[in-house]
Amino acid sequence: MIEKKVQSKKCEKSESGKSCDKVCDAVAGKEGVVRQSFSEQKLSAKQIIILCLCGALIGFVNGLFGGGGGMICVPLLEKVLHLSGKYSHATAIVIILPISYISALIYCLSGNLQTAPFLTIGSGVLLGGIVGSFGLKFLPEKIIKIIFVFVMFAGGIRLIF
Predict the structure, then answer these.
(1) CA distance 98 to 96
(2) Coil, strand or helix: which one is 81?
(3) 23-61 pLDDT, tens per residue?
(4) pTM attached to this predicted model
(5) Which pLDDT tens digit goes with each residue over 106-138?
(6) Burial (CB count within 10 angstroms: exposed 0-12, middle 13-18, buried 19+), residue 64
(7) CA neighbours within 13 Å on the CB side: how many for 96?
(8) Element (H, E) at 96
(9) Domain boundaries defined on the chain
(10) Using alpha carbons only, how large is the chain's radius of gyration in Å?
(11) How far apart, in whole angstroms, are the C-alpha atoms of residue 52 and residue 8?
């Protein structure tokens, strides 16, 4: 991923003249980073095949278990596309959202949805998701990785016992 240091809130045009596809990290008064967008990245045929196969695995896991695809998606984005932790988590949410919606619709149409847990736990998940997404913006990447590892580890241990 190409990075370019900037000093302002606005994305400056790069040498190629492209500015609309840039994502700015610049915060008022602080030095930020402009990252090359996905559309500007050159992916090899091998990377494209790996991403498509892993996408199918993510969708399968999410559909089968009603979630969990993000636990595969985040490391994939970090290793294959070399995204930072924050970008990996944010991108994983955007990838998982439509998969989760479709899975939920299928579960609902199949009669596998209980209303009380959906309303009560769902409300908490909605609130927690909002707080968590704001936390992603402010927490250091190292803390995010530690939390992610702890959640994965705790989930794995819980499944065993």
Answers:
(1) 6
(2) coil
(3) 333 323 333 444 545 555 688 888 889 889 988 988 888
(4) 0.60
(5) 888 998 888 888 889 989 989 998 998 888 888
(6) exposed
(7) 21
(8) helix 85-109
(9) 1-41, 43-115+144-154
(10) 18
(11) 37
